[in-house]
Amino acid sequence: MTANPAILHSLPADLDVLRLPKHVAVIMDGNGRWAQRQGQPRFMGHRRGVDTLKELLRCCKDWGIGALTAYAFSTENWGRPMPEVDFLMTLFERVLRRELKEMIDEGVQIHFVGDLQALPSSLQEEIERAMLATQHNEKIKFVVATNYGGRREILQACRAIAQKVSSGELNLEDIDEGMFEQHLYTAGISHPDLLIRTSGEMRVSNFLLWQVAYAELYVTQTLWPDFDRKEFHQALFDYQQRHRRFGKVK
Ligand code: IPE
Ligand code: IPE
Ligand code: MG
Prior knowledge:
The structure is a single chain. This protein is an alpha/beta fold. It has a domain at about 20-65 and about 70-150 and about 225-240: Decaprenyl diphosphate synthase-like (Undecaprenyl pyrophosphate synthetase, 3-Layer(aba) Sandwich). Helix content is about 40%, strand content about 15%. Strands 3-4-2-1-5-6 form a 6-stranded parallel β-sheet, with helices on both faces. Helix 2 (about 30-35) crosses helix 3, helix 3 packs parallel to helix 4 and helix 4 (about 80-105) packs parallel to helix 5. The site of one 3-methylbut-3-enyl trihydrogen diphosphate has 10 residues, from helix 2.
């Protein structure tokens, strides 16, 4: 099998192009600590975090990784001080508006997953616009988890299925893993192969609870705003040393 030279372009020599993860998910943690360490208010970390995400998306695209999912805001993050929540909502909206043209030009297909109806209506409009405008793009899927909670996602899937059963649209025997997944926010998107968390915390914080069942986990002490191409290279290198057994023996 010959590798596509366009994909090989700029891929570090110690990475195997045929064994790259197809889908990478990131818990972008540590923005607040990053800012505080420099004596700056927390929001400066969020602002820098956007640049980091943009660079990671570009890197995934350059290296031929088909999907990137980023955890931007959890269902629990509403519990933060109101000024920080407001700042984040405004930031998401501004960034989306600012970056849309470039995403269209670069072949990015953007998706948002989460309980989107609870977001400010002006943000919902930008989300709608961006998803519609990029729906036929094929270079890379970029999934942004906003007001996302794994438990909430599973619950709403259960409710939707229960409703179909009670209306007779579905039979109890029809419920299997494949059909359950079609009721998750991530329907039609492959499971992540690699889950990266920055800032050293060893937890999943309600992220993609169903989908990461067999993802490889990679935790780095690096705070999200400092997670650059070199760090991502390290994560991919580490991933390629793993033996994914999926419960089987070799
Ligand atoms: C992650 O950074 C960004 C969001 C949760 C929106 P944090 O804001 O959690 O930063 P730390 O963990 O407090 O340093
Ligand atoms: C997880 O980070 C959520 C996002 C990155 C959006 P948190 O900072 O909210 O997670 P905890 O509170 O450390 O578990
Ligand atoms: Mg945090």
